[in-house]
Design a protein that fits this description.
The complex is a heterodimer.
Chain A: H1 2-11, H2 13-44, H3 46-50, E1 56-59, H4 75-81, E2 86-100, E3 106-114, E4 139-143, E5 152-154, E6 172-174, E7 180-183, E8 186-194, E9 205-209, H5 210-216, E10 226-231, H6 237-248, E11 251-254, H7 255-269, H8 271-301, H9 303-311, H10 316-349, H11 361-387
Helix pairs in contact in A: 1-10, 2-8, 2-10, 2-11, 8-11, 10-11
Chain B: E1 9-20, E2 27-38, E3 42-46, H1 53-60, E4 71-74, E5 77-78, H2 84-94, E6 95-98, H3 110-121, H4 125-138, H5 154-166, E7 172-176, H6 184-201, E8 204-208, E9 220-225, E10 228-234, H7 240-243
Parallel strand pairs in B: 3-8, 3-9, 6-7, 7-8
Antiparallel strand pairs in B: 1-2, 1-4, 4-5, 9-10
Classes of the chains: A alpha+beta, B alpha/beta.
Adenosine-5'-triphosphate binds at residues 20-21, 27, 29, 49-55 of chain B.
Chain lengths: 397, 244
Amino acid sequence: MLRIALQMLMGDRAKYIGLLLGITFTAFLVTFALAYFAGFMTQGFALISENNSADVWVMDPAVNSTEMTINMPSSALARVRGVKGVSSAAPLSLNDLTARFPNGRFQTFQMIGVDDATLSGAPFLYKRGSSKILYRPDSVIVDSGGTSGKLQTPIYQKDKWPFDGVHLDAPTRPLKVDDELLVNGKRIVIAGVSQTIHRFPPRPLLYTTYSNAKRLLPSEHRRLTFIMVSAQTGVSATVLAKRIEQQTRLRARTSSDFKEDTVRWFLINSEDVGDMAAMLILAMTVGFGVTGIMLYMFTYESLKQYAVLKAMGASNSMLLKMVFIQAGASAFLGAGMGVGLCAIIGEFVSTIDFPFRMMWFTPIFGIVGVLIVSITAAMVSTRPVLKMEPGVVFSGR
Amino acid sequence: MILDEDKNIVVKCRHIKKTYGSGESKVFALRGIDLDVYQGELVMLVGPSGCGKTTFISIISALLEADNEGFCRVLGEDLSTLNSQEKTYFRGHSIGFVFQAFNLLPALTAVENIAIPLLIQGVNRAVAMKRAQTILDLVGLTSRSQAMPGELSGGEQQRVAIARALIHSPKLIICDEPTSSLDHESGQLILELLRSFVKKEGKTLIVVTHDNRIFNFADRMAYMDDGRIVKIETNVRTPDEKLL
Ligand SMILES: Nc1ncnc2c1ncn2[C@@H]1O[C@H](COP(=O)(O)OP(=O)(O)OP(=O)(O)O)[C@@H](O)[C@H]1O
Ligand SMILES: [Mg+2]
């Protein structure tokens, strides 16, 4: 009889394909939405991913994300270096600053000041040179950080630092090496343009050395935002983080814990993330609703057939098994196709810088979600099967 | 199992009543039916629309529960004493159904449709299919065994339905308007087929019909009106000889 259930399911090609497409679509939607969300969250902790050689991140005890920070006194660096098990500790300084373009326009950047000695934290430059270019005076590396059209400088010499006021509407081109910007009345030179991981929320980035940062932001007394620690071989990051916390009274987190902290911070504090989550939940609800209704309709439209089977001696439990096998088979197939489709499309969109991360939980959510909805729909649709008037078998048509 | 005085009695109904709904919208579908049907007999139930024919055969075939008065004994079983599982079993083993709308499963081939009652009973698929093919031969559709219902004419579909009603060798076959979706010729063929089974194998057949072109196949006619049987007539014009 289970075979008959499947034959019933696939007998009406058009309806079956519709159902399957619906489920596939839902599974796709849910998986994609989650992967998209995961993609954004991944961008949320881009700073941590970018510095993957850091085992432990040290910060002010009140900081719990890369997004909202307060600086520590510079003495913290020496204290951390003094902790047993620390192989190296590099300072990292995060500050927002506003830079002026030659035509008079301005733009807020996140300035990332990296260790003068090691330059750890500076971006890798694919096209030319190395981050060593930061050793040149007043040098910075700029990065769009996921924004577009924000790093534009005038094309023509006449529009640069003009004497007759700002040339805001001058034609522009993207920033490139040797272009100049003005920060707090000081000139900075673009030494390189990098392409690191996109930020969430997107923002232009300005990498420079720690000492350059100090010069560009004289008003800031404390500039040490994070200390990136690498552990000696054989020392576990978790243990080292504990030890640093005990000895320095600063907050120390392994990089994976700190990523989690940052995601949690976004979930709690960011309205953008809240809006996005609400939209995703809406999309999922719609998808799940459609799937559920389609499955319900499928059973409902087969009621007459079930009634015939019931008249001919099929027990309720047999009919229930048939309904569930139909729902289960379509759910499994649809979920598989949806997740597969999502993987294929994900492969494609991640090549065009789309925030998309297939993490272990995304397909599981997609599949489990669809299964739960299908089973629920099947359970709801068994009601008319069980309650149906046996008399319907005798009615004409 | 309660033995009736007359062992040949298949259906014995007394004072069967059925009301639908309650209060204002209460419908008295059956107002007290008495009927005996004997083994090997083809009884036709006729009467105007809404007089309660379908209601009555639904009760006989354990698809519908009658009101508490009266009793209905079918093949020795007092239907009012069966719980729903027992009724399901009773239907699956003792009754064959033929419907006006054929009610074949559209996704199954002719031979698979015929096998359903055996599959429901849990008979091995290969065995069931083999038996289904044999029955299909009996109704003259040997070559159409792999056809889908949608590819069959109305008359062919009803012959498949008859094969399905017979495959599990039920003692009682119940038909509701078996010919009203068919043309005259197919209708005659269907009744000839049904009647030959009744007479050859000693089955019992109850046929609800409006179709006066098939009245002559009946052994007895029970005329119903407004929830009662108003007249029972023994049909003397049955063309038995021609059929047997
Ligand atoms: N489920 C139901 N609920 C309420 N009333 C019903 C129900 N089924 C049948 N009836 C009513 O019971 C009466 C008898 O109906 P039934 O279907 O048995 O008649 P019938 O003789 O088979 O009619 P037809 O020739 O049109 O098939 C009718 O008045 C009908 O409206
Ligand atoms: Mg009727």
